[in-house]
Amino acid sequence: MAPPCGSGRRWMRAVKLILFLFFLIPMSSVGFRNTNTIFDKKKKLEIQRKLKRLNKPALKTIKSPDGDIIDCVDIKKQPAFDHHLLKNHTIQMRPGSYPKGFLFKGSNVSSNSKPKITQPWHLNGRCPQGTIPIRRTTEEDLLRASSVANYGRQKYPNDDNNAIHEYATLIEEGDTYYGMNAEMNVWNPQVQEQNEFSLAQFWLAAADNNGVYETKKLTELWSPP
């Protein structure tokens, strides 16, 4: 016995709807995969461009025991000179003059003495004269950053009055100072949150007649990648 006319039409509409959904779901999945593929390609291209800009051609490459790759880059082609204000900058290896009463003494290290091992990669070689050692930036380094564009940029603290800051300072005032140098280490810093950081700083501040300070800082900073 044939079903009533109205029931047959409803049954046909239900079949068409099921078939439509059956074909729609795979098409949506394909579209989603295509979107992800396009995004991944753009991300990959952005990373490759960033790495090409950061990693300068090396005259010598040294593999460090800790896994890092050290590139010996021509001192005149170091990344700092990419800045427009440092174009055609003349590198001065030693001061052209010294403060009155200050006598510069050359190194007394014998040419036959072995160089001091200060970093792990020194175990596998040294950079030739006229080059500087630069750790090679990897794709993993960029992926750990909040964004590829922000990689290597220092995060400035916001004006959150609820933030807790802990300091340990040593201040020396008076006398006459002609410059500064410092040896600093940030050793095993206890950092728990993404917005926390640990640093060591050496400040040299001088005030003019109006009490306005001009400050120079040497900084050693570590924050979560």
TrEMBL record:
It comes from the Eukaryota. Keywords: Signal. InterPro entries: Glutamic_endopeptidase, Neprosin, Neprosin_propep. The keyword Zinc-finger does not apply. The keyword Signal applies. Residues 158-225 form the Neprosin PEP catalytic domain. Residues 1-31 form the signal peptide. This is Neprosin PEP catalytic domain-containing protein.
